[in-house]
Amino acid sequence: MLLLPGDGIGPEVTAQARRVLEAVAQSAELALEIEAGLIGGAAIDAQGAPLDDATVARARQCRGVLLGAVGGPKWDALPVESRPERGLLRIRRELGLYANLRPAVVFPALAEASTLRPEVVRDIDLLVVRELTGGIYFGEPRGRALVSGRREARNTMVYDEVEIARIAHVAFAAARRRGRSVTHVHKANVLEVSQLWVEVVNEVAREYEDVTLQHQLVDSCAMLLLSDPGRFDVIVTGNLFGDILSDEAAMLTGSLGMLPSASLGAGGVGLYEPVHGSAPDIAGQDIANPLAAILSVAMLFEHSFEQADCARRIHDAVTAVLDDGHRTRDLLPVEAASRALGSKAMTDRVLEKLGC
Ligand code: IPM
Ligand code: MG
Fold first, then answer.
1. Any residues with CB less than 8 A from the CB of 313 and at least 6 apart, and which?
2. What local confidence, expressed as pLDDT, does residue 267 receive?
3. 272 in active site
4. Is there a domain that residue 233 lies in?
5. In what helix (H) or strand (E) does residue 316 lie, and over which residues does it extend?
6. Which candidate in 45, 76, 160, 219 is catalytic?
7. What is the pTM of this model?
């Protein structure tokens, strides 16, 4: 296991997640070796780059990488190619982690925490399958230029059929284990790239006749996520649309502080990270919600250690803690903030429920 805490609240939430990881591994009699490394702004400060080759090499040797978050105002002025986020993009790419799974589930106790009415969000149980190593994030050519005295900037959205087919397979296979429905999200009324996605996703769908497939334009999908989120099971889409829609889906569930993610690929290593980001404004105060990082540990047990039981135990413990009424600050209305638990205290409750 490699732990990459990163920046902002990354170190504090991964420290709490590590307690759960160690406790559950011990109770399942799994031998676990945990090393730590640097990524993002922390790596820039220590080594001059957001991710060094040695850390990539160590990650390749591991079954799983648990990552906190990267970025913060301290490094905002850096050019795009040397920002903390580059470290994250590089590790995804170097490890070939093309499939990003972002489940958005409403914990019953939190239905009231959503900005939408409880009856709208109650049935949310969806999985965003986001393509993670292609598209406009990585396409060439890219960059800035001065053209006839004007500043110009360019990025390229490009996908080939192999990249599309393999992420479509991940989505259909996941749907088979869930609600047997896939929604492919695209902008095929404008983009050739999306037209190719529609074609290839249709081809892959023939191998999964027990799964229903719908194609949905990204703008109307953004709308449907607000009006009728319960209709979605698995959403499959490219890198940029997936980035945006997964934040929207996350927020529907009450707090970005609850959402875990897994990034998987053809190689043996998986990367697990909370979706919430580095939240520098609340860093270092022991108030961040550790549950997304803890639920990322559950995903690690499921996907990298093939210990679905351990994953279920963590999930159940989190549900029970919330059912008991425990909340971090992000899950409470401002006027109730005084009863919020800190990151460590919240994790203590989870460990109690786990019996560890
Ligand atoms: C995410 C983040 C990253 C992304 C950033 C930090 C590069 O927003 O994981 O969703 O855009 O992929
Ligand atoms: Mg994002």
1. 24, 354
2. 82
3. no
4. yes
5. helix 308-323
6. 219
7. 0.95
